[in-house]
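In practice, a research group might receive sequence data for several interacting partners and want a quick structural hypothesis before committing to experiments. The following worked case mirrors that situation: the sequences arrive first, and a predicted assembly follows.
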Amino acid sequence: MALEHAILVSLAERSASGYDLARRFDASIGHFWKASHQQIYKVLGRMESDKLVESHLVAQDGRPDKKVYAITTEGRSELTSWLVTPTPVEALRSEFAVKLRALHLSDRDAVLADVRRRREQHAAQLESYESSAAHYYPHPDRLDDDELGPWLVLRGGIIAEQAGLAWCDEILKELS
Amino acid sequence: MALEHAILVSLAERSASGYDLARRFDASIGHFWKASHQQIYKVLGRMESDKLVESHLVAQDGRPDKKVYAITTEGRSELTSWLVTPTPVEALRSEFAVKLRALHLSDRDAVLADVRRRREQHAAQLESYESSAAHYYPHPDRLDDDELGPWLVLRGGIIAEQAGLAWCDEILKELS
DNA sequence: AGGAGCATGTAACTAGTTACATGATTGT
DNA sequence: ACAATCATGTAACTAGTTACATGCTCCT
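A structural hypothesis for the assembly, expressed as tokens:
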């Protein structure tokens, strides 16, 4: 399961509670790996019994206690060996492509509206990635060692959104 | 569940057995929606009890009998209403992006080898899409009504593979 | 008084994967 | 003799989603 590994990556950077992880997944990593808090709590529980992570309770004032998880030595070695295994190409699953393929059975205006919606979503996501890039990496030609990975991931997001946008534009050209 | 709808699209074009569907999913639709034969049989069973499809046995000589499924009127109306509902943007899940993000914890050569592998896979897939396009749609400016959808889907595949390739090249440039 | 944010979870369900199981025919 | 193709499935498991559940504090 890759969520486990995504959590290990995140905890390797900094220890965190389930709640913290859920927020991190909403922000940075979450663009490439979504996870709900329910799923995170469940997986953290299993990871703890597998000794990949360990937790200790931290009392806070004015806020509920939190259970802070840290990666263990075992977790780190699991992470290291996962990092160097070849990654299987992920199967892309596109409901939209299935609908588009059935265009001749469908309603042209409905498809058109759907494509326009998608186009706007791609445009918005692209803009958000680009402003992240400008904000966090103003000098992409001079990146620290630990910035290169995140930067390249962000570039991947930008490239993917541009491609999504280009596809929508091509569809719109054909349909309207 | 979108597999149900992908099956309905496929059966709306032509009736088929579970086995036939599995092969179709391996070929055209499968580039955008993978499904194993086990899963297809299971879903077909449910769809039959839901009256979206109906089957009859066809005896063949020299080959095992097959159960040919056809879309029902109810299936067709389900399909029609699904086709016009707005499509939620699919969350992209990239194990590769998670690994790349952890580049500073990883082995540079292993990542490099992985990226090269992915690059070749994208290149191979792109070539396969492009030869499909050249073969099935030699005149993309004069497409029949029922060809436009599949053509646009193929274009989406081409655009996505080009983007994947471009990303790999950018990573390779940074890493080597 | 009400909503947002902090914090943790359980339960039930749906979707998808992997392993197992069978058996005939056709081609090398 | 052996592998590939045709043909259909079951069983066990893993991953992920949706709905439900609780309770405190801070801000408006």
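Before designing any experiment, note the following. The longest strand of chain B covers residues 53-58. Chain B touches chain A through 63 residues (CB under 8 Å).
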